[in-house]
Predict the structure.
Amino acid sequence: MSDSSVTRRDFMVKTAQGAALAASGGLLWAYLLRQEAKAQPYALRPPGALAERDFNATCIKCGQCVNACPPHILKLAPSGGDQPIGMPFFQPRTGACIMCPDIPCVKACPTGALAPELKDINKSRMGLAVIDIENCLSWKGLRCEICYRDCPIRGKAIVLETNPRGLSLHAMFRPIVNSDACTGCGICERSCPTDQAAIRILPHKLVQGKIGEHYRLGWTNEGKITQDFKPAEAVPAPVEAPGQNAPGVDYLNQGGL
């Protein structure tokens, strides 16, 4: 066999191998893209994370925030899971955010996916605590309140509502979450003593609605319309002698015709 035949055969073999490798790589990439498309977009992100779409576009999956996390509760999503590969997330039940005052994860982020404008950890909004009132021990009438006691900003994010028990003179202390103060740190979920946590951190999109801009809540907005509004003064009813009706008076509306 001539050298040219061997060279030609080697070339054909390597070409076929390269095509097969490219095809398998393309299939693998297509599979990963499908997994990304089906990935759960509602994962809990570190403090200061941008809106999910902006976060996905800005995060380069470098893992710097994971390395900077003191309690090491942040993880990078593995392949084949419910989240985009390499995205940082945390699971409160196994590892809640400990609310570091200096927010090291934000400082470590090189792209701004974790907004550097966040200076106060209490202003972070990683998610919102939601209580399952059917399985919460306090809502069932038992004394618990662990989520309230462990909350880093208790009295603001979680408050206790006193309700009569009905069967006895003792009161029920039910935890209530204030969405305007909850940081979504997950300490309440981690601390909940039920087998499956009766209070969980969920992304805001899953649990919060929006009433719409066309509704005017005058009692919450000190705008020009509210300030200029003055209730009409009541018109005093005319005093008449008993048995007499003054002409031209509407007694039903206490005013003139």
User: Anything to note?
Assistant: The chain has three domains: 1-32, 40-125, 127-209. The mean pLDDT is 81. DSSP finds eight helices and eight strands in the chain.
